[in-house]
Write a structure and sequence with these properties.
heterodimer; A: alpha/beta; five-stranded parallel sheet; B: alpha/beta; seven-stranded mixed sheet; 8 helices; binds iron/sulfur cluster
Chain lengths: ~475, ~220
């Protein structure tokens, strides 16, 4: 029978059908960070259990790490959580990148960067944006802490198979339209619960044309579309990307691996439970206006009017969002003035993101009303690469702060956050109430759009910026 | 895991869709390395008027009296009524721990985010799915009657109102049995250790690169 890519990955990892609608699935790679793991290690210890297979695990601190001084963590609670990860890895023998290791970074950035995430793998992490790794043709999804403990103890998960959804982005996107705009437009179309219960495969010319990093941005936000996992078929780009990474197979094993990876695509006649077609040419640079990623419009549009929404529950949600965001319906998006700019997060902190932003700001200064514009590279290696290309100088020259890698203001567990009422153009993935700091207002955009907004002081269409 | 069989409890109506896990338990509290103590900061941003942080004496903070959890009529609530896509956002299990630590044992909503749903089941918080219109009825009844209670019976898969109306709900058999017995899922999986070993032997042949250490 013809299979989807998801079917293939699922079948290849099936240890046992449990007969009650769930199955035992084998996990090839388990990535660990400091926030969702302490209680799992605690549970393991209390039950007298040991990790099943040490080499399947890789740990890194990212959520709490300061982006300025790395050696002096002021918040005692953050410090304890980071120390707890150290201790848990030391006692179990799990490999961990230290906070000052150049390989440290956001867990979803370092997995692919290190080749720790490979095509064909099942990859999990106690973090919903694990879906990022699906860009490699892997089944990657976020899990809760009980599941972290379960994977540590058994290398398996009890899981139910999701349904198959195919999202085709057909044709070509226009100039200035990036992977971030594509995924925001998809979420605007299907809604934040549109993918609930599904695994999404992204396909179509516009997806195939994206770089691996662009594909990671797409898969990253699958969770914002409601799907636990998103994935993209393996092609030559995937293989070229993985080649030579520290954890990638070498020599004979490499040859064997790529031979098997070439099968990691849906069969031509595979059937999907749901298919969504999107015309790439219709996608414009996107800006979210509300407190859910589905509350998104094109930069040339206006903030929508709840009055024109027929569904009363939606209408109420829109009104609440506008109030929280302190926006009037009907104003042009380009009239929205900003206080802060955040360039970072597992969605958009890789080298291509930094290059795209640097290209926009080069030779310009940030606007006077911008209190803080910061760049937080996704990993120490991204940072090194950017510095080798002189991008740090471009950022600093324009008035941006150039920081150390971590999650930073994506969720503000470290000292980087919005103050109540502050408005931010952010390249991250969630614009929920209080996400970047209590009372803070987040607008999600692409790196190029965030860069242009930093210079203008308000949103602008990056395609006409500088003309 | 805590077992769940049946419960009669006070109903708390949280009348908004897409309640995300950042709202259920804001990030500053995720720094704890334990599973308990999250109840006082459940829905923190809505519940209190100023920001709080771990270690604060939360009993001294100014409360938002408009928020449902602060209304005396909903005190000691054990059943949370919610709207669609409840628990969307991050994978933080702290959201479930916070709801349970507060005292909730059941959530009733038309739909849930996937990770939240499975986290609930793994901790013994029962996520019941009813239709939007059934939820409308329950919201209305809860608003109209002070001290409104429902009886949730997992064995029978039913919810009974004080005037005897019954709503039935679906739940996957595997989940149901584990919840009823409060079974330790890891213990159950480890009974299949031979099957896991056999899988690994086969996978090691087929895809040896997945089993190497760093090269
Ligand atoms: S960057 Fe943001 S979304 Fe990504 S893992 Fe960190 S906190 Fe989560």
């Amino acid at each position: 029978m013809a299979k989807t890519l998801y079917d293939k990955l699922w079948d290849a990892h099936l240890v046992k059908d449990l007969g009650d609608g769930s199955a035992l699935i084998y996990i090839d790679r388990h990535l660990i960070h400091e926030v969702t793991s302490p209680q799992a290690f605690e549970g393991l210890r209390m039950a007298g259990r040991k990790p099943w297979r040490l080499s399947a695990n890789l740990a890194v601190p990212d959520h709490n790490v300061p982006t300025t001084d790395r050696h002096n963590i002021e918040d005692p609670v953050s410090k304890l959580q980071l120390q707890t990860l150290d201790e848990n890895c030391a006692t179990t023998g799990i490999i961990k990148f230290e906070i000052n290791d150049p390989r440290q970074g956001i867990v979803h950035v370092i997995g692919p960067e290190q080749g720790a995430s490979l095509p064909g793998m099942t990859i999990v992490c106690g973090d919903s944006h694990t879906s990022t790794n699906g860009a490699l043709g892997a089944l990657a999804f976020g899990i809760g802490t009980s599941e972290v403990e379960h994977v540590l103890a058994t290398q398996c998960l009890v899981s139910q198979k999701a349904k198959n959804m195919l999202i085709n982005v057909n044709g070509q996107v226009g100039r200035g339209v990036t992977a971030k705009d594509i995924i925001l437009a998809i979420i605007g179309e299907i809604g934040t619960a549109g993918g609930t219960g599904f695994t999404i495969e992204y396909a179509g010319d516009a997806i195939r044309e994206l770089s691996m990093e662009g594909r990671m941005t797409i898969c990253n936000m699958s969770i914002e579309a409601g799907a636990r996992a998103g994935m993209i078929a393996v092609d030559q780009k995937t293989i070229d990307y993985v080649r030579g990474k520290p954890f990638s197979p070498k020599g004979e094993l490499w040859e064997k691996a790529i031979e098997s990876w070439r099968n990691l695509k849906s069969d031509d006649d595979a059937s999907f439970d749901k298919v969504v077609d999107i015309n790439a040419a219709d996608i414009q640079p996107q800006v979210t206006w509300g407190t859910s990623p589905e509350m998104v419009v094109a930069v040339g549009d206006r903030v929508p009017d709840p009055g024109s929404e027929a569904d009363p529950v939606k209408q109420q949600g829109m009104m609440r969002a506008l109030e929280y965001m302190d926006l009037k319906p009907g104003i042009p998006v380009t009239d929205i003035k900003l206080d802060k700019i955040f360039l970072g997060s597992c969605t958009n902190s890789r080298i291509e993101d930094l290059r795209a932003a640097a290209k926009v700001i080069k030779g310009h200064k940030i606007a006077d009303n911008i209190k803080l514009a910061m760049v937080v590279p996704g990993s120490g290696l991204v940072k090194q690469q950017a510095e080798a290309e002189g991008l740090d100088k471009v950022f600093v020259g324009s008035g941006f702060e150039w920081r150390e890698p971590g999650c930073s203001m994506c969720l503000g567990m470290n000292p980087d956050r919005l103050e109540p009422g502050e408005r931010c153009a952010s390249t991250s993935n969630r614009n929920f109430e209080g996400r970047q700091g209590q009372g803070g207002r987040t607008h999600l955009v692409s790196p190029a759009m965030a860069a242009a907004a930093a210079i203008a002081g308000h949103f602008v269409d990056v395609r006409s910026f500088g003309e | 895991m805590r077992a769940f069989k049946t419960l009669t409890g006070i109903v708390v109506p949280l009348d908004r869709p897409n309640v995300d896990t950042d709202a259920i338990i804001p990030k500053q509290y995720l720094k704890s390395i334990h599973r308990t103590g999250f109840g006082v900061t459940l829905f923190d941003d809505w519940r209190y008027l100023e920001p709080g942080k771990p270690g604060d004496d939360h009993s001294k903070r100014k409360v938002n009296t408009d928020f449902v959890l602060n209304q005396p009529r909903y005190e000691k609530g054990e059943i949370l009524l919610a709207r669609k896509n409840f628990g969307c956002g991050s994978s933080r299990e702290h959201a479930v721990w916070a709801l349970m630590d507060y005292g909730f044992k059941v959530v009733i909503a038309p739909s849930y985010a996937d990770i939240f749903f499975s986290n609930s089941l793994k901790n013994g918080l029962l996520p019941v799915v009813l239709t939007e219109s059934e939820l409308d009825e329950l919201f209305e009844a809860t608003f109209a009657n002070e001290g409104y209670q429902l009886t949730v019976n997992l064995e029978e898969q039913s919810i009974i109102t004080p005037d005897g109306k019954a709503y039935s709900f679906d739940i996957d058999t595997g989940y149901k049995n584990r919840l009823l017995q409060g079974l330790d899922e890891i213990g159950i999986t480890l009974r299949d250790r031979d099957a896991i070993r056999a899988y690994e032997d086969k996978a090691r042949q087929l895809s040896p690169w997945l089993f190497g250490d760093r090269t």
